[in-house]
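Listing S7. Sequence submitted for prediction.
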Amino acid sequence: MIDPKFLEEFIRTLQDIEDDPEKVRRCKDYSVYSGSEQNREIEGLLWRYFDKAYAFGMVVTNYGDILKEHSLNDQDVIACAEDFVEKLDEEETLATIAYHFRWDHFCEGVLISKCVAEGKLLRLLKHLQSVQSNKA
């Protein structure tokens, strides 16, 4: 179980971005290769949360095995449509989150420019919070 306080704090931060069109635009424009002064603040904030996500075990290392075992395809995982996310259990949700974190490793910047900017990470974290609270 991911620390509920951390999860709530991370969700609040992502919701703040989602609610501010200027912050969303800055996330969409994010590139690891061309940083701007405006983006450094939001980038620093997000990377602190990303680092904590690893520390709290949110980025599971066996995500590929989980996705394969549950027959979750890459296109659905990348798209993270609401109807797809709603059907995920806790293990599948964590694997999907890990997929997005690892995708950033191979496509630097996509975690911010796609996953945060398009609300995918927020959707996944809200779902994880809901699944965990239903378990408690």
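Caption to Listing S7: primary sequence and predicted structure tokens for the chain studied. The CA atoms of residues 87 and 133 lie 16 Å apart. The chain has nine helices and no strands.
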